Amino acid sequence: MSKLASSLGSLLAVVLADGAGLARAAEPVGVDRGLRAGDWLVRGRIMGTIPTEQSTHIAVIGGQSKTPTALLPDGDVSYFLTDHIAIEGQAGPIRTRPKIRNSLVGDVAIGSVWNAAAMATLQYHLLPGARLNPYLGVGLAVTTPIAIDPARGIPDFTLGSLASPVLQAGFDYHLGGNWFGNVAVKYLFVPRQSYTIGGVRVAADLDMLMVGAGLGYRF
Q1: In this structure, are residues 35 and 133 in contact, taking their beta carbons and an 8 Å threshold?
Q2: Bridge partners for 108 per DSSP
Q3: How far is 3 from 34, CA to CA, in rounded Å?
Q4: Which residues, at least 6 apart from 175, have a Cβ–Cβ distance to it below 8 Å?
Q5: C-alpha span between 98 and 111 (Å, rounded)
C-alpha cells in the first residue's frame, strides 16, 4: 500500500507541475513502477481449457457429446485507458474435437472443428501501482467455424457462430523493469449449440473454464 500511495502522490505532483506526459518522458530508463494509463501490456500464457456443465440431447442414438480438456498457448494485449481501467483483446484459431460417448452405437468421433475466435474484456485493476496487482474483467467471446473436417463415416455438417459472455479474474506481478508474471482465470458462458449430423439432431450445452499462467511485457 505504501508504494501505491507514493505512486499516486507522485502522479498528482506531476499533473500539477507539468502534465503526466512530460513526467513520463523525464523518467529515468529502467525505473521500476506499476502499470498506469497509456501502457500496453502483451502477455503470453499456457492455458488449460476445461469444459464444465456439459449436457447433451442427441436424437435416436442417445449418448453425450463431449469436448475434451486441452492445453493451449494463449496470448492477449491490454491497453490501460486509466490507471485502473484497461481493455484486453485476443484473437486466433482454436481447434476442437467433439465426440459422442455412450450412444446406442458406442463412442463416435465427430471430427475436428477449426474456429476463428476473438475475445474482448473490460478490466478493473485494483492496485495498478503495486507489485502485485489483482484485476477483474467482464467481456464477450465470439467463435465462428472456419473449417470442419468430419471423421471417417460422418457426413458433412455445419455449425453456427457463438457469442459467449465472459467473467475474468487474475493478477499481474511486477518482476522488474518491463516484465510481469501473470495468472488468469476466465469463465465462458457458452450458449446452446444445435446441429444435425446425418439426420441425427444434436443439442449441446457446456460452459468453459480457462486457467493459465505466463509472462507479460509492458510497452
Answers
A1: yes
A2: 100
A3: 9
A4: 181, 215
A5: 7
